[in-house]
Amino acid sequence: GRVVVIGDAAYRPSPLTGMGTTSGLVGAYVLAGEIAKHLNDSKGVHNPLVSAFETYDSRFRPFMRQVQTLGPGLWIPSSSWAIAVVNFLIGIFAFL
Question: Can you give the pTM of this predicted structure?
Answer without folding.
Answer: 0.66
